[in-house]
Amino acid sequence: MTGTDGPVVEPVETPAPVLFSVKGDATPEEVAALVAVLQGIAASGAPPAKPPRSEWASPHRAVRGFHASGTGGWRSSSMPH
User: Fold this and answer.
1) How many Å apart are CA 57 and CA 69, to the nearest integer?
2) What is the per-residue pLDDT across 2-42, written as a single tens digit (0 to 9) for each?
3) Span 34-56, pLDDT tens digits
4) What angle do CA 66, 71, 75 make, to 5 degrees?
5) What is the DSSP letter of 20?
6) Rg value, the chain, Cα
């Protein structure tokens, strides 16, 4: 035994601050306003809305239809089926 019968206490590491001021001297009110805005953004929880897909990028445009070959194939390629 080492001579102490008490529980072993391990040092607790304090986490690094999430928000810190790099330059300037912010007042407590300014820091509170910034924290309130950031908490509001984080609390919304909704993922950002995806913009609608452009019709030019639509996957159905990548699929080509069947084109007739042979006599008149060139002409029939532009005619609807």
Assistant:
1) 28
2) 556 677 778 778 777 776 767 788 888 988 998 898 888 88
3) 889 888 888 877 777 888 878 88
4) 60
5) -
6) 33
Does the pTM exceed 0.70? no
DSSP assignment of 43-54, as one string?
A: HH-PPPPPPPPP
Indicate the length of the chain as a whole number.
Answer: 81
DSSP state of 17: P
Closest CA to 19 of 38, 44, 43, 41: 38
pLDDT tens digits along 54-81: 888 777 777 766 666 778 777 766 656 5
- In the chain, alpha helices (H): 28-44, 73-76
Residues 6+ apart with CB under 8 A from 26: 34
